[in-house]
Structure formats: C-alpha cells, structure tokens
Write a structure and sequence with these properties.
It is a single chain. The chain is of the alpha+beta class and 761 residues long. The strands form 11 sheets. Strands 2, 4, 5, 8, 9 and 10 form a 6-stranded mixed β-sheet that branches. A 6-stranded antiparallel β-sheet has the order 21-20-19-17-24-25, sandwiched between helices.
Length: 761
C-alpha cells in the first residue's frame, strides 16, 4: 500500500467515526484474530484491555475531550505522565510470573522502531512495584492482580512522538520463541499529546505573576481554554472578536492527526514541537496544493463559500473539512490563526493568537516598506527595486499565533513564545509556512536564527520610506521621507484569566516583547542589527533622508466613527520659509480591505494653492455617510490619503491614515434555570439602524457545552426593523460558558455579540 492509499484510508476512518458519533448509533468495534493458531489451553489469551480513559484523563488534563466520553472510550494521554490500565484474560486464567510471557508493544506509525523512538517494548515480570527507568524511557509497574486480570501503570516517555499509538499484547509460555507467541491487537486508539504540565517536556510552561506561581493558571488559559478573543480592526479602534477554539470537539484531534500524516513528517520527528508547529502552519492553509484546511481569500467575493467574517469558531471549519475532505472556503489571517490555535491547544502545545496593528509585508527582505513617486510626485504602482515585481504592503492588522516551547536548537535564552503563522504570505524553504520564530530573537534583531525571524521582525518594525524619482541619483531615486514609527503600533493578545463580553478590559499589550520602545537606542540597534545581516537591506539604509524641507504637512488622524456619521479629510500646511510656496495637493478617501488593498474610491479632490511666507492653512475634504456607506467592505476599514508637492523645492510629501467604521452589535439574552440538562431560552436581537435594507440575513451562534455551530436565516431586514431569533439550548456540563453570535448579510458582516452563561449541576 502506498502512502496516498494509506493516508486516504486513515482519513476515511476518522470520517466514519465522526459521522457515526453524530448519528449517535455508532457500532462498537469488535476484534478477533482469525489468523492466529489455536492456542494451547495453558497459554494466556487476552480477552480485553481497559484503558479507563475517563479516570486517567483527570490526571492527564484531558477530561474535557469528547473522545474520552464517547463509546467506545478513547484514551487521550500526555507524554511524561503514567496511565493505568487493565488486561483481562479469557477463561478465568491469571498471569503467573515466571511461567507466562506477557509482552507489550506500543507502536506509532506503519514501521515502528525502538531506535527511532516510535516503539516501546515492555516485558512484564509481575513483580515491578515502582518505575525504575528515566523519564525518557518506557517503563511499567504492576499495581494489582485478580483471578483473571492484571492492573498496570505505564510511563510514557517525556519525549515520545505525539500521535495515535497502538498496543499489541503478546502472550505465551516461558521459553516460547517469539514467533509462537499469541498476538492480541488492541482495537483502541491511544492519543499521545504534548505535556506542558511536565517539567521535562520541551513545551513545559512555568511562570509567575504578581509574585505568585501561576503556571497552572497560564495553562488554563493557553491550553485548556476553548473560547478566547482575537483582536481585529484599525489602530485606535481594534477590538477583541470572540472565537470558539473548540479543541475538545470529537472531530478536532482526529483531524490534527491527519494533518501530521498529510504533511509527511517522519513519525520520530513528531516528538519535536519546533518541527510539529512549523508543519501545522503549512497544513492549516492549502496554498501549496497539499489539501490543507483553509482556502484564503481577501477580495470580498465569497459567494461559493463562507465569508471569513461569518465564522464564529474553528469547529465548523474542522468538521466541514473532515466531511468533505476538501479545503474549506474561506479564511483570512485571523481565521487561520484561530484554527492554528485550536490545533496547537488540542495537541497540548500552549498557544495564543496575537494581533499586530499596522503590520508590514516586506516582499524583498529590506526591512523597509517602500513607496515610489515619479518626478512630478505621482504615486507609482510598481517597485523598481524588486525584481520579482511584487510591492510591499501594510495591513491594518495581521494575526499570527504564539506557541510556547523550549528551543534547544538555538542559543540559550531564545525559548518561550515563538511566532508561527499559517497565513500564506511568503514561501519559506519552498512552502507557505512560517516559524517558529523566537519572539526574543525578533526583539534583539537576531535574524540569523531559524525560523523566519527576519520576516516577523519586518512585520513589526520595518521603516516606511517614500522614494522620489531623481535622474541625478545613482539608483534613480532619492529618499523623500522615512517614517520609523508607523509599523507595529500595537501588538495585542487576550489577557489571561479575563474575558470581557462587553468591553476591552481583557486586552494585553505585548508590543514590548517584540521590540523596545519606538525611537529608543535599543529599538534602533535591534533593527540595524538585522539590517547588517542583509546585503540588500544595507543598500537601502545607505541612502539618507533628504533634509531642509521648509513646508510642514500633517494629516489629522481619525480613530473611529460610528456607521452613519460624516467626517472630513483634514491636512494642515505650515510654510516655514520667507518665500511663498506653490503647493499641489491631493486628498482622497477610500474603503479598503484590511490587507491594504483598495476596495472603492469614496471621494477625491486635488488643487494647487499658494501658501504665503510663514503662513499656516488647512485643507478639508468633507465625506458624508451617503458617500461611503454603500462602499464599505468587511471590517469597515477606510483609508485617508494625502499627498503634496512643492513646486519651488521639489519637496514631496505623502501620508495615509486608516480608521474603522464601527458596526452595531448583537444583543443576547439567556433565560431559564441554567442547570445541566435543563433547557435555556436564548434570544438574539439585532436592530437595523442603517438607512438601507439588508438582504440574505443569517444569525450564526455557537457555544462549547451549550451548542455546536448553528444558524437561522432571515430573508430581508428593512431599515429600522428589529430581527429577533429565539432558540432553546440544553447545557451539557457545569461551569462558565460563552455563547457567541454573528449577524451576517450580503451588505454587512462582522456584527457580533457574546454573553457569559454560568451553568450549575
């Protein structure tokens, strides 16, 4: 059987498992060894193996995985942690030390090997009372025996590869050759995950906060929490969007294992979180044509799929992928990050989504975002310095994931949070994958350390340079201006242990982990250290910014406006010279996709002005709601553009400002007893306060422990009309739950709401 057939067979198996569970009539697997010879009456015959998945799951911090509670139970264990299980023998026979052979083979993959650490062989003597081997070895001890059972504990090596392990049990009489032993293939899957609770595991997370040990609490947040937030929007108006990670769903772990198979990582390398996390960034997207989870799309054309802004979590995406065996349409950076966080947490890798507000996409490795103007000051659409033809861009926000791990492959001090990114922006080593890049290496400008540190550093700290054509320059252009503070305005994630369903008190600013304070010596040294590692970048930084310009321009920034409000593009001009200046200025406003691509022109005006000596004036371009409201695209991002040239001095100035049009929210009301198994009456309400009809309306909602992703459709919503949708939900388990809703229509998306619900037993 070739690799493709084997992979398809594995995928089909997990499809059938999930389909069966969804129908709630899964047939229990039975097992028999038809090819085995008829045993001697004296040989032990294994009747059944009991892994006691629920009991072990408590110690392994896996009790919330749905697979553990399904029938038949599935064992979900963490490496470096022992588990208890029982073997029951047929015909009432018991294990006799010295007389019987009992040998256990734990196997991973089609060709298990002790040398490659994908096989563990344990010979049971019957008198093992304690573990005697190091934590990186398989070990066993006997806990108890009855007339027909033996209870044992097995130590999983702390560096065991993660994946689906299988157990083979060999029995025989003392002195029997290996080929005469009777084989019992245990039908149960054994999922082995990373163990961030274990000090010897490379993903172990420790930490202190406010003087108290918070290691377990941090793992509650970065491994166990199945609902979180992802920050989206323009700088000054970004807000946390609720996201259901859903790592405990019974489809999630099987899909994670399929991804590891599909990316062809050798099984022995799946012990290494550096290798695993890098491979996952490749498999969450499908840009390499390798049947990854998500299609990316940024042009607003989502008719043949789901708009990225309409997703409320990862589970529906993962289940759609599993059932169709096709990449799901569509995702954008924050959706890629949400799914990647889910996969990491499901596998036991501490992870959190991180949002970089005003994020650079440097296409040619210069640590600069370059804009070019001709001799007349007109913007050029090409990058003359980039032989690949691509142009640099600035995204309003970009979201990636940080995963926590040690980095024994790097010098000391570069472990901890590592940036990994599943959004297909640039190829790394020939594939659309990114990271893990040590965040500390980014902060120090150590771009020579693997993986993709230079790309992440440019994203958070590139300089923005404007170039003007000049035939007297050796490179054909001179540097007109340089903004060292535009990129990486804020880098945000969710604050541990806080979930704010109304405001943004759960925001944590981690900008200083990626770079020192803007303008500080440390920040400049870090960037110049990176520049010094690149011949191409050094050439760009060789040309100084022009000085001596005597007209000062300033574009007045906006942070946010509520939808329906009017605004103005405002530029102030100040002539510091004693001569009049002739200024040609252009002002415009556009709606934009969040990756910087223009969607629609809203207003545009240009004119020539005479600015008197030492004078100060203001240019203003008013924009009404009628001008922009029908041209808005997802996330409500708008961009103000202003440019000017001074005739007498050839001074060129260009500036942009992004802001966000804020949408209304969905109101959620929950009534009922709020007890496990008793129905809740949930009401979702949205008021169309816009002066336009909304069509093809849909309310999507989701809440772990309350409901899987579901939706209700509504044809049209007239101006001023209120949409009210009621449904009943039955809580599955006690605790604090989050219910998330998203209103979607053809005209507008990204209208959300959330509420906390505390369920008692």
């Amino acid at each position: 059987m070739d690799f493709l057939d084997e992979l398809n067979g594995f995928f089909r198996r997990i499809q059938l498992d999930v389909e069966g569970r969804r129908r709630e009539d899964r047939v229990l697997n039975s097992f028999s060894v038809l090819s085995a010879p008829k045993p001697s009456k004296n040989i032990l015959v294994v009747d059944k193996v009991y892994f006691y998945a629920k009991n072990n799951a408590i110690e392994h911090h896996t009790v919330r995985y749905e697979l553990v509670h399904r029938q038949p139970e599935t064992a979900v264990f963490r490496r470096g942690q022992p588990f208890t299980f029982i073997i029951r023998f047929a015909d009432g026979k018991s294990f006799s030390p010295g007389k019987d052979i009992l040998r256990l083979h734990f196997n991973l993959g089609p060709n298990p090997s002790i040398i490659k650490h994908t096989q563990g062989i344990l010979n049971v003597q019957g008198d093992e009372e304690e573990f005697t081997k190091e934590s990186d070895q398989w070990d066993i001890r006997v806990v108890g025996k009855t007339a027909d059972t033996i209870t044992m504990q097995v130590q999983i090596p702390v560096d065991a590869p993660i994946g689906i392990w299988k157990l083979e049990v060999y029995t025989g009489e003392a002195g029997d050759a290996a080929e005469r032993l009777r084989l019992y293939n245990c039908p149960n899957d054994i999922y082995v995950l990373f163990n961030p609770w274990c000090e010897d595991d490379t993903v172990y997370m420790e930490g202190e906060q406010d003087g108290r040990s918070k290691a377990s609490n941090l793992l509650d947040e970065y491994v166990l929490a199945d609902v979180g937030k992802i920050w989206m929007g323009a700088y000054g108006s970004a807000r946390g969007r609720e996201w259901v990670f859903g790592q405990y769903d019974d489809a999630t772990l099987p899909v994670c294992m399929y991804l590891l198979e599909a990316c062809k990582i050798p099984h022995f390398e799946r012990a290494n979180p550096v290798v695993v996390s890098r491979a996952l960034t490749k498999m969450v997207n499908q840009a390499d044509g390798d049947n990854g989870i998500l299609h990316g799309r940024w042009d607003g054309k989502y008719e043949d799929g789901t708009a990225p802004s309409a997703w409320t979590g990862s589970v529906k995406i993962i289940e759609d992928y599993l059932m169709t065996k096709m990449p799901v349409k569509y995702g954008q950076c924050w959706v890629f990050a949400g799914v990647l966080t889910t996969v990491c947490r499901a596998l036991g890798l501490p992870a959190r989504p991180v949002s970089n507000l005003v994020s650079a996409h440097d296409t040619n490795g210069t640590f600069t975002i370059d804009r070019f103007f001709d001799e007349k000051g007109n913007a050029m659409d090409i990058d003359p310095f980039n032989p690949g033809g691509e142009t640099d861009s600035i995204w309003n926000f970009h979201v990636w994931v940080e995963a926590w791990m040690a980095r024994p492959d790097l010098p000391k001090g570069y472990g901890g949070w590592q940036a990994i990114d599943a959004t297909p922006q640039e190829r790394s080593a020939g594939f659309y994958q990114c990271g893990p890049a040590s965040v500390e290496a980014v902060r120090k400008g150590q771009v020579g350390l693997v993986h993709d540190v230079a790309f992440v550093l440019a994203s958070v700290n590139a300089d923005c340079i404007s170039w003007r054509a000049d035939k007297n320059s050796e490179i054909g252009f001179v540097q007109a201006s340089c903004d060292r503070y535009k990129i990486g305005k804020q880098i945000l994630t969710k604050k541990p242990f806080v979930f704010d369903t109304v405001g943004q008190s759960d925001t944590e600013d981690i900008t200083n982990t990626y770079k020192s304070s803007e303008g500080s010596n440390e920040e400049r040294i870090s960037l110049l250290t990176a520049v010094g590692s690149s011949v191409r970048a050094k050439r760009f930084f060789r040309y100084p910014e022009r000085s001596g310009e005597d007209v000062v321009f300033d574009l007045i920034e906006l942070e946010r406006i509520a939808i329906g409000e009017s605004f103005s593009v405002v530029v102030t001009l100040q002539n510091r010279s004693k001569q009049a200046r002739t200024i040609h200025a252009t002002l415009s406003a556009t709606t934009n996709f969040y990756n910087g691509v223009k969607a629609h022109l809203v207003r545009h005006a240009s004119a020539t002005y005479i600015l008197q000596p030492m004078a100060r004036e203001e240019l203003r371009l008013p924009v009404s709601s009628k001008d922009y409201i029908s041209k808005l695209v997802e996330y409500g991002i708008m961009k103000l553009h202003a440019s000017a040239t001074v005739k007498e001095t050839n001074q060129t100035w260009f500036e942009e400002d992004d802001f966000q049009v804020i949408m209304p929210t969905v109101d959620i009301k929950v009534d009922g007893a709020k007890k496990v198994g008793q129905p809740l009456e949930v009401t979702f309400t949205f008021v169309n306060g816009l002066k336009m009809k909304l069509t093809q309306c849909k309310m999507v909602f989701e809440g772990p422990g309350l409901t899987r992703s579901d939706f209700r459709e509504y044809p049209d919503l007239a101006p001023g009309e209120t949409l009210t949708i009621s449904t009943k939900l039955i809580p599955k388990f006690a605790g604090e739950h989050s219910l998330i809703a998203c209103f979607d229509s053809k005209e507008f998306t990204e209208i959300t709401g959330s509420v906390k619900v505390v369920i008692s037993k």
